[in-house]
Design brief:
The complex is a heterotrimer.
Chain A (H helix, E strand, L loop, with lengths): L14 H13 L4 E2 L13 E3 L20 E3 L8 E3 L3 E3 L9 H14 L2 E3 L7 H6 L2 E6 L8 H6 L2 E5 L11 E2 L6 H7 L7 E2 L10 H14 L6 E6 L3 H10 L4 E5 L8 E2 H6 L4 H14 L7 E5 L5 H10 L3 E4 L1 H7 L5 E4 L2 E4 L1 H6 L32 H25 L13 E3 L2 H7 L16
Parallel strand pairs in A: 5-15, 6-7, 7-8, 8-11, 11-12, 12-14, 14-15
Antiparallel strand pairs in A: 1-13, 2-18, 3-4, 9-10, 16-17
Helix pairs in contact in A: 2-13, 7-9, 10-13
Chain B lengths: L1 E8 L8 H11 L7 E7 L8 E6 L7 H12 L4 E5 L2 E6 L3 H11 L4 E6 L2 E7 L2 H7 L9 E7 L14 E2 L5 E8 L2 H9 L10 H14 L4 H11 L2 E9 L2 E6 L8 E4 L3 E5 L15 E3 L7 E4 L1
Antiparallel strand pairs in B: 1-8, 1-14, 2-7, 2-8, 3-5, 3-6, 4-5, 9-10, 10-11, 11-12, 12-16, 13-14, 13-15
Chain C lengths: L1 E4 L5 H15 L3 E5 L16 E5 L14 E4 L15 E4 L15 E4 L12 E7 L13 E6 L15 E4 L10 E4 L3 H14 L9 E5 L15
Parallel strand pairs in C: 1-2, 2-3, 3-4, 4-5, 5-6, 6-7, 7-8, 8-9
Antiparallel strand pairs in C: 9-11, 10-11
Classes of the chains: A alpha/beta, B alpha+beta, C alpha/beta.
Chain lengths: 448, 298, 227
């Protein structure tokens, strides 16, 4: 009889960790990759809605009205933004994405009546022309930042941090710094671009207040000013953003994506979106600023259910990055060219990955032409096809959102409230301060 | 985050007006620190054997007269008590340790803000203008002062969390910035038997420096050790019985500006707090360098 | 000459006037009185005009300037001429931290000293400093030139890209990837031209050239070494 081979993998030194140690030992460099945290985290999936039944009455789907209009920037700006849906496109740079992708985002957002956002590296004509409502980011690096585009923007987003890498600067590896990208960022072609982690001309909330005031002066107090923070000490950060004079606060949880960052940042720095959102809402409540300063949450928002839960917990809107890229075909096994699906699995294999697992945005060799600057690869994303797909995606999310809202008896999605939710796990109950399903128990807050 | 101001009046005649000179300085720092404000004023010293104790009562109707009676009855000697809104300055010849123990035992809700022969401290929540009005800052007299306006970053907004912080006698400190390792400093000091009244990062810096000086360091040596131990961003302004001292961390991420004039030395986070000072256009204006200790003697 | 007094109007009214009313008025020169350290004076200018600020400014004087020629007869706070595109900002006194931060174009002249991080992230601006500059100046400087007639502090030009600095005095230390390079005739001419622009009289021969060694440009070039 042959002996049966029993292999036991170490839980601590599993294959992933072994690969990590081998790779570090071979290169002497940390790993850089794209997308967001891959580890399991407490999330919106751990919450469910209490819909209407006998004690409350649901609204009829598709028939009875359910408003989704969302107004952002009502605190100081003379010209607040009005969106048709509370789902926006998160800031992603031209550089990380191609000009064609930026155009697709603008087209879809415009058709759906929502906003898109620039990223590190400035504003491209494609996205300005295709986007009815465009939010212009002011980042620590100030790549491509200039007063003309500032005046062309509909809102300004002062970025302090990003959920994938709070406390870190941006990155764009040399293979994506093409002539056009380099030109916009005033850099030599092909260098690895590192962005600063702090703004060049202010440090701390007291000086941030002066910076916000300057941006208001330059734009004649017309445009809403957002302040975006990566989720870490969110309760304090949101309070300080209010002090500094923000119209809108964007909180980006640790599930948020990036085009290129050290893996150690992505997986080990920051707190989950669920916890950050609850802290942000607590901070606004504490200051009696709910409804006066609007809150946008991002970081791993994927579905209409996620949107509905975020709104119920107190967000005024959400921003989506990775979901938007997936909708354009990211991690799809094929891309569309002249109406034909063309298989791209060989290109994934060449990167050492496969459809469904790819996080190789940093290489610029995106097999489906989304996160690339390569002249050939970028052709794989046809702006009109991308726009159509993204429009469908946003439409689906919005339909799911209103379906949930109607089921909970709301004629306005902004009337969802946290009492409409219960938690399925202790972790989610504690982080979101939402009772465990079937009980009144919020760990640390109320008894069973 | 915060605004800081300091004023040392060299011209003897102007010392009666130090409060009036300072008031616009403090109010000028409102945007930097809208949550709370505080001030340490160094006035005429009490007699050699005496000490002043700055006290704060959260209750506006606190019965200071009763405290005076209890003090006399329990300790067998009267204390002089001067009340201003929620604050009072208690003067006695008893040992500080005796007074501390007595206060803790009989009036545990009171905050003991400072002990010294020259220094009084006032600090409270509210805008700088409100706090200044509550405690009649414009009437203050003295040779030098240290003031602060606070925008809370991580710890709560309470009078106790407001600056200045003190340790020892006639010594105080205000801070603009944010330390990144206040909790390990605090734990290290707790092992030395030092206790804390708040979770404010500034208190950690304050007690660290006071501890070093009690151990025999002079201010310069204590600060040099501070550069090794205190991490993060800070501009520290300190007052002692006869000097003001200023230091910025190596990164100098928080602003500071100094105006030296024949009649005074004025320090603030920004020039807008100095603009109103008499004849400031003839003052020597400069920015303190990082990691350099500036000391001005009365 | 048109005078605007910041004891009488707010900085918001001042800037609204400069942005919206001034362009149509044909005014070529105006002065701003009693600045008293107020922030954002003449920020966001987009008009060719000479502005004299009579006193000390606060943060972001002439921030994001285009076209205007602004002279401050005093000192300025943080971020003077930050992100400037064109025109000139001249400071007669000293400038606090982050002078000319992220500037894309135009000329910033500081007759006195500047504090830390002068020319941080500069993107094409020319900066001429009559005095000395503080620590960490020229951090990540991408493009443009900086002439320093006095000394430079610690970490000059850390992680710099394509900008070039000319220093007359001592350099306390260079930042990562910054190096001193020999001066060429083109460098001497550039220094002379910038000194002329600023009105400073020094011999270009006294200046050293500092530029990026470009070793950080592709920092993973050593990757995939197997041992």
């Amino acid at each position: 009889m042959s002996k049966k081979l029993v292999l036991e993998e170490s839980a601590g030194f599993n294959q992933k960790v072994i690969e990590y140690v081998h790779r570090a030992s071979a290169t002497g460099l940390y790993e850089i990759r794209g997308m967001g945290a891959k580890r399991q985290l407490p999330s919106f999936d751990d919450l469910v809605f209490l819909a209407g039944s006998a004690s409350r009455y649901p609204l009829e789907g598709y028939r009875e009205k359910c408003t989704t209009t969302t107004v952002l920037g009502t605190r100081f700006a003379k010209k607040p933004i009005e969106l048709a849906i509370p789902i926006t496109v998160a800031g992603m740079s031209f550089g990380a994405l191609s000009g064609r992708v930026k155009e697709a985002l603008g087209r879809a957002a415009t058709e759906m009546g929502t906003s898109t956002t620039t990223g590190d590296g400035g504003m491209t004509p494609e996205e300005r022309q295709s986007s009815k409502t465009l939010v212009y980011q002011c980042l620590p690096s100030r790549y491509g930042f200039n007063p003309d585009d500032l005046r062309k923007a509909d809102a300004i987003e002062l970025v302090i941090g990003q959920g994938a890498k709070p406390g870190g600067g941006g990155m764009l590896l040399g293979q994506k710094v093409t002539k056009r990208v380099a030109g916009m960022r005033t850099l030599p072609v092909g260098v690895d671009q590192r962005s600063a982690c702090r703004h060049p001309d202010w440090t701390g909330p007291d000086d941030l207040a002066i910076k916000v005031a300057e941006l208001r002066e330059i734009t004649d107090w017309e445009k809403p000013i957002y302040i975006k923070v990566g989720a870490t000490r969110t309760f304090n950060d949101v309070k300080l953003a209010v002090h500094a004079g923000a119209d809108v606060i964007v909180v980006d949880g640790m599930q948020g994506g990036t085009a290129a960052t050290q893996t150690v940042f992505i997986e080990h720095i920051g707190i989950p979106t669920l916890a950050a959102l609850r802290q942000a809402v607590d901070a606004l409540e504490d200051m009696n600023m709910r409804g006066k300063v609007q809150l946008i949450v991002s970081g791993g928002i994927r579905t209409g259910a996620d949107v509905a839960k975020a709104l119920a917990m107190g967000a005024d809107a959400v921003a989506i990055g990775q979901g938007v890229l997936l909708s354009l075909g990211c991690n799809s096994s094929s891309y569309v060219q002249n109406g034909q699906h063309i298989d791209a699995t060989a290109d994934y294999n060449a990167l050492g990955t496969a459809p469904g697992f790819c996080h190789h945005c940093q290489t610029g060799k995106c097999p489906v032409g989304v996160t690339t600057q390569d002249e050939i690869l970028e052709q794989r994303l046809e702006p009109l096809v991308g726009a159509k797909r993204l429009k469908n995606y946003l439409k689906t999310l919005n339909m799911e959102l209103t379906t949930v809202a109607r089921a909970c008896g709301k004629s306005n999605v902004h009337h969802l409230e946290k009492e409409d939710l219960v938690a399925l796990t202790l972790e989610a109950a504690a982080m979101a301060k939402i009772p465990l399903a079937g009980t009144n128990w919020i760990p640390g807050v109320s008894p069973f | 985050m915060c605004g800081i101001v300091g004023l040392l009046v060299k011209n003897q005649k102007m010392r009666a007006d130090i409060g009036k000179l300072m008031l616009p300085m403090l109010i000028g720092m409102t945007e930097r620190g809208p949550d709370s404000a505080g001030l340490a004023i160094f006035g005429a010293p009490v007699s050699n054997a005496d000490r002043k104790f700055s006290l704060y009562a959260a209750d506006e109707d606190f019965n200071w007269q009763k405290l005076g009676h209890d003090f006399t009855n329990h300790l067998g000697t009267p204390a002089r008590i001067e009340q201003k809104a929620n604050h009072a300055v208690l003067t006695t010849h008893l040992e500080p340790s005796t007074v501390r123990v007595w206060l803790k035992e009989h009036y545990p809700s009171l905050h003991l803000l400072s002990v010294g022969q020259l220094m009084d401290i006032y600090k409270d929540t509210g805008t700088p203008a409100e706090v200044a009005e509550r405690y009649s800052f414009q009437n203050l007299q003295g040779s030098h002062l240290v003031g602060h306006t606070r925008m809370a970053t991580e710890s709560a907004v309470t009078p106790a969390h407001a600056h200045p912080f003190t340790a020892g006698e006639d010594w105080c400190l205000v801070h603009n910035g944010s330390l990144s390792n206040p909790n390990s400093i605090r734990r290290m000091l707790q092992h030395q038997g030092i206790s804390f009244e708040t979770d404010n990062d500034t208190e950690a810096a304050c007690r660290f420096l006071e501890w070093r000086m009690r151990e025999g360091d002079d201010l310069r040596t204590a600060l040099n050790k501070g550069f090794d131990e205190l991490d993060g961003f800070f501009t520290l302004l300190m007052g002692t019985k006869d000097q003001l001292a200023l230091v910025r961390d190596p990164f100098a991420c928080k602003p500071a500006i100094v105006a030296e004039h024949d009649d005074y030395v004025a320090i603030a986070s920004e020039y807008r707090s100095l603009a109103h000072l008499p004849d400031v256009k003839n003052a020597n204006l400069y920015e303190p360098m990082p990691e350099e200790l500036y000391i001005w003697k009365v | 000459m048109e005078s605007l007094d910041l004891h009488k109007i707010t900085v918001r009214e001042l800037n609204q006037f400069l942005h919206k009313e001034l362009p149509g008025k044909g005014v070529k020169k105006l002065e701003i009185l009693n600045p008293d350290g107020v922030h954002s004076i003449a920020a966001g200018m987009d008009t060719e005009v000479d502005i004299d600020i009579q006193g000390h400014g606060g943060y972001y004087v002439g921030g994001m300037n285009k076209h205007a020629n602004i002279t401050v007869h005093g000192n300025v706070g943080w971020g003077v001429a930050e992100n400037m595109m064109s025109g000139t900002v001249r400071v007669k006194g000293f400038a606090s931290s982050a002078a000319g931060a992220s500037g894309h174009g135009g000329t910033l002249i500081i007759e006195g000293d500047t504090s830390l991080r002068c020319g941080i992230s500069m993107k094409g601006i020319d900066i001429v400093v009559g005095g000395s500059i503080g620590n960490f100046s020229g951090f990540m400087a991408q493009a443009g030139r900086m002439v320093i007639c006095g000394d430079a502090g610690d970490g000059l030009g850390d992680s710099m890209y394509e900008a070039v600095f000319y220093v007359r005095g001592n350099i306390k230390s260079l930042g990562a990837d910054a190096q001193i390079e020999p001066m060429t005739d083109a460098d001497y001419a550039a220094v002379q031209e910038l000194l002329n622009r600023a009105g400073f009289k020094h011999d270009p021969k006294e200046f050293k050239r500092v530029a990026g060694a470009k070793k950080l440009y592709n920092w993973n070039a050593d990757a995939n070494q197997e041992y």
